[in-house]
Amino acid sequence: MTQSAELFPCALPRTSGAESWRADFPILAQQIHGKPLVYLDSAASAQKPKQVLEAMDRFYRNDYANIHRGVHELSQRATQQYEAARAAVRRFINAGHDHEIIFTRGATEAINLLASSWGRINLNAGDEIVITELEHHANIVPWQMLALERGVKLVPAKITDEGEVTLDAIRACLTSRTKLVAVAHVANALGTVLPVAEIIALAHMQNIPVLIDGCQAVCHMPVDVRALDADFYVFSGHKLYGPSGIGVLYGKAALLAAMPPYQGGGDMIESVSFSGTTFKEPPHRFEAGTPAIAEAIGLAAAIDYVGTIGMNRIAAHEREILAYATEKLRGINRLRIVGTARDKAAVISFVIDGAHPSDIGTLLDQHGIAVRTGHHCAQPVMERLGLSGTVRASFGLYTTKDDIDRFVAALEAVRGMLQA
Ligand code: PLP
To answer: What is the tally of helices (H) and strands (E) in the chain?
Structure first.
């Protein structure tokens, strides 16, 4: 991973590096309904640079075979590239060992794996799991399913009206029964950046392990799981400019070593007989069956891509876009930004008085603007804020100020139509 770009100054001109980064994303160079595409739905899924598309294409054209069990050349090449992808993920989040990186289908599967494997051996009736009111359903429902099965209690920490999670709110939920704290690093619906380092330190004072859902964080900021001292950290490749169908569960080696398998099948066993089966050590114990091989390689290409630009530089660019867009949206009559935390990542949720979010989204699409509308798989936070949904504009490294200008102009036109 090249870090040299991190040395570039962060005071960015109007177009910044984003114009040239944008050129790496072929899909963005198209018109939608006769208008230039403005893609503001990166929090749902980011677009893919040609470096990722080419890496996957190259792999399928030249090196594709199943991994781990083949003695032939193609299988060995595929295995080498798949395991190199694991090492790339390890470096990207600064984990200590490759075997602490488990490939999954995505963050959702990573959390289900934890609930099913770690949860089953560590949680009993009466135990409590602390989450927050602003979690994505992926960090609520797997724990709720386990809670029903096991008599475990889910305890959501309260958020402020601005959408912040304070340490006091977490502290108020911790009891002698708390067995896990599981919180988002960045909230998908509001963009709030949670104080995860402090939350982890707080939980560790009571020897409680912490899972961080980093789905919306890894694409926006450098993440160092060892500096955070996270026990578990999960994310999805597709929000990090990589392919869908691949995600990551990071776990501290000792925790993973004590966990039983999640799924059974090929590649996760040492030996199988009808009298009994023995399992491999992590990470292979948790990767039953043929994995998403090309997708892992695509994820490594995405990691290499963002590394070449530099995560600090991406963060600086997105901070500037977020500030620019926030100021412009604040100038729109009867528009209210939902989620005004002091520390936010590149997401703006909003509502407009008298206009339904899905009508706004549908009309914006006619202007070539792609936004997401609805509850964003975070119904509890919508309920907490008294809303059925919002419009969410989310930004990526390829978002430019021109995109924001087009978005704001379209929004003014749409608002006029809906309120006429
Ligand atoms: N957690 C957060 C914060 C998310 O934003 C998402 C997806 O939007 C998920 C988890 C689930 O990710 P996936 O659907 O890729 O498994």
So the answer is: 14, 17
What's the DSSP call for residue 230? -
Q: How far is the CA of 215 from the centre of ligand 1 (A)?
A: 6
User: Of 399, 327, 408, nearest to 367 (Cα)?
Assistant: 408
Burial of 267 (0-12, 13-18, 19+ CB in 10 A): middle
The one-letter amino acid at 339 = G
Contacts of 341 by beta carbon, 8 Å cutoff, 6+ apart: 162, 163, 164, 190, 191, 192, 193
Could you tell me if the CB of 404 is within 6 A of ligand 1?
no
| pLDDT, mean of residues 332-340 | 96
377 is catalytic: yes
Those residues with Cβ within 8 angstroms of residue 174's Cβ, 6 or more apart along the chain or in another chain: 130, 181, 202, 203, 206, 208
Which residue type, as a one-letter code, is found at position 240?
A: L
Q: Let me know: does 381 contact 253? Beta carbons within 8 Å.
A: no
Q: What is the pLDDT of residues 26-81, one digit of tens each?
A: 999 999 999 999 999 999 999 999 999 999 999 999 999 999 988 999 999 999 99
Kindly list the distances between the CA atom of residue 215 and the CA atoms of 162, 174, 382, 385, in Å, as whole numbers in the listed order.
Answer: 21, 24, 19, 22
Give the CA distances from residue 179 to residues 46, 122, 154, 229, in Å, rounded to whole numbers and listed in that order.
34, 8, 11, 17
Is 234 near ligand 1, meaning CB less than 6 Å away? no
H or E element at residue 361: helix 357-366
Could you report the per-residue pLDDT of 199-250, keeping only the tens digit for each? 999 999 999 999 999 999 999 999 999 999 999 999 999 999 999 999 999 9
Cα distance between residue 53 and residue 50, in whole Å: 5
Task: Collect all residues with Cβ–Cβ distance below 8 Å to 63 and sequence separation of at least 6.
Answer: 74, 77, 78, 81
| Ligand 1 binding pocket includes 104 (Cβ within 6 Å) | no
Spell out the residues 6+ positions from residue 126 whose beta carbon is closer than 8 angstroms to its own.
151, 152, 153, 177
Residues 6+ apart with CB under 8 A from 71: none
In the structure encoding, which two tokens stand for residue 97, read together? 């060992």
Residue 168 class from Cβ within 10 Å (0-12 exposed, 13-18 middle, 19+ buried)?
exposed
Nearest to 318, CA basis, from 241, 391, 372, 395: 395
The rounded distance, in Å, linking the Cα atoms of 58 and 61 is 5
- Which mutation among 194, 216, 344, 379 tests ligand 1's pocket best, with the greatest number of atoms within 8 A of CB? 216
One-letter amino acid for residue 182 of the chain: A
The torsion defined by the Cα of 109, 179, 135 and 133, in degrees rounded to 10, comes to: 160
